[in-house]
């Protein structure tokens, strides 16, 4: 086994290569002016093919599972696998680093190890998942859920905005829903899962550090809230006789905001990110409103209690305004801790590169949350400018990305040593 210190990582060159790959991927978008790459779309297909080509160049064989997850296999003959993954789908009007960075860093780290003929007691699978953002269907983390063996078949019926269900989209992508279960790894074959991701927050920049070790990932509850009133003429129905669904929904949204503010010390955040008012005309009182609601917090019990409080607020609001309402949950992930010994290995890798290994929690969701149900899991964060993410201004420097590749390569070697110790 070659010692970690013997890897001569040409960090600047690696970072430049990562940037070039990310720029090439970012050209694959539904719209020329905005980066949009949705799960199981033609753009997903193109990105998957590009990534498969890079995996082959790095010495991997490539397969694809029923949810379109591209899997690059290094040393496929070895039964034990270390998994390195992230996602290649995007939010609407995305930056180019959220997701693809982890895939590109994984490919380049494997390329480094292969180029130096480093022997490991396990093979590596680099996984490019297609559904972390949940931008197309209400599902999120579908690809990693299939790999972890926890895919929920009920989500096959979820429609996108055009009424195409997830099940139909899988077929249109050339896959078979009967093969989804076969995508699951056998836990006995998996040594661990690691994910490199931009921080998407301001901590590392404030600390003037390029890399950080993730301690855990916040839990999330996502749902759709529907408020029903009576549509009516905006000119003739007096204010006191209205059953305005949008006014009721607006009241509820302020209560949601207030609840999250009151629980801020728990890292609680709540977001209404999408709203539809029907019939949606200037001169019609809204009769029906649907909005998305997402709560995140570092304590599952507090998050669940906050949702119960909002339901009670909704009940009071509905009685007073004579409206009806419904909460339709569609995604729930508990707070997930990263595996301590793997955190320590990332910390050591960062120290070996000459930096203080700061530890921080993730407020964003990641495929690692689901993969933690399969195997020991760890994440490495990379500093991003201004903490900006889910925005085209997202930026990580070549130098920091190069360091992330070097840290991952060192982590892999340390992980191999532990296994053989
Ligand atoms: C993923 O980016 C999420 O945290 O919503
Ligand atoms: Mn992401
Ligand atoms: Mn994201």
Estimate the mean pLDDT confidence: 95
Find the count of extended strands (DSSP E, 2+ residues). Answer: 16
Query: pLDDT under 50 segments (min length 5)?
Result: 1-8
Number of helices: 11
Estimate the strand proportion: 15-25%
Shape call: globular
* Beginning-to-end CA distance, first to last residue: 12 Å
User: How many strands, what sense, and barrel or not for the largest sheet?
Assistant: 9 strands, mixed
H/E order of the elements? HHEEEHEHHEHEEEHEEEEHEEHEHEH
Written description of the protein model:
The chain has 421 residues and is α+β, with helices and mostly antiparallel strands. The protein is 35% helix and 22% strand. It contains eleven helices and 16 strands. The strands form three sheets. Strands 1, 2, 3, 4, 5, 6, 14, 15 and 16 form a nine-stranded mixed β-sheet that branches. Strands 7, 9, 10, 12 and 13 form a five-stranded antiparallel β-sheet that branches. Helix 3 links the parallel strand 3 and strand 4. Helix 2 (42-57) packs parallel to helix 3 (100-115). The chain is globular and about 80 Å long. The N and C termini lie close together (12 Å). The structure holds glyoxylic acid and manganese (II) ion (2 copies). The site of one manganese (II) ion has 4 residues, from loops.
């Amino acid at each position: 086994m070659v010692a970690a210190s013997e890897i001569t990582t040409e960090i600047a060159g690696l970072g430049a290569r990562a940037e070039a790959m990310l720029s090439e991927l970012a050209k694959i978008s539904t719209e020329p002016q905005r980066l949009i790459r949705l799960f199981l779309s033609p753009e997903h297909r193109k990105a998957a093919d590009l990534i498969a080509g890079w995996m082959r160049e790095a010495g991997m064989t490539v397969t694809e599972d029923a949810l379109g997850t591209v899997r690059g296999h290094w040393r496929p003959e070895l039964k034990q696998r270390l998994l390195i993954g992230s996602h290649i789908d995007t939010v609407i009007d995305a930056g180019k680093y959220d997701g693809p960075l982890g895939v590109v860093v994984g490919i380049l780290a494997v390329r480094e190890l292969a180029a130096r003929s480093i022997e490991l007691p396990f093979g590596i699978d680099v996984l490019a998942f297609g559904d972390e953002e949940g931008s197309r269907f209400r599902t999120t983390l579908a690809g990693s859920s299939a790999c972890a063996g926890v895919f929920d078949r009920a989500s096959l019926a979820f429609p996108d905005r055009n009424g195409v269900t997830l099940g139909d989209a899988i077929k249109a992508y050339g896959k078979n829903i009967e093969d989804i279960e076969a995508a699951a790894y056998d836990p006995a074959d998996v040594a661990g899962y690691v994910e490199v991701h931009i921080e998407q927050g301001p901590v590392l920049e404030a600390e003037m550090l390029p890399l950080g070790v993730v301690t855990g990932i916040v839990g999330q509850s996502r749902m759709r809230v529907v408020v029903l009133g009576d549509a009516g003429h905006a000119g003739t129905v007096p204010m006191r006789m209205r059953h305005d669904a949008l006014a009721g929904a607006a009241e509820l949204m302020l209560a949601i905001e207030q609840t999250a503010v009151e629980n801020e010390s728990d890292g609680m955040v709540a977001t209404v990110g999408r709203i539809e008012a029907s019939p949606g005309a200037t001169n019609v009182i809204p009769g029906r409103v649907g909005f998305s609601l997402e709560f995140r917090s570092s304590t599952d019990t507090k998050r669940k209690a906050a949702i119960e409080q909002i339901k009670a607020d909704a009940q009071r609001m509905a009685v007073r305004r004579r409206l009806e309402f419904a909460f339709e949950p569609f995604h729930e992930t508990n707070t997930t801790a990263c595996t301590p010994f793997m955190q320590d290995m990332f910390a050591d890798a960062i120290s070996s590169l000459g930096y203080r290994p700061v530890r921080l929690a993730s407020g964003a969701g990641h495929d690692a949350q689901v993969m933690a149900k399969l195997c020991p899991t760890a994440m490495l964060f990379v500093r991003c400018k201004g903490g900006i993410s889910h925005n085209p201004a997202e930026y990580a420097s070549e130098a920091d990305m190069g360091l992330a590749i070097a840290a991952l390569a060192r982590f892999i070697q340390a992980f191999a040593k532990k296994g053989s110790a």
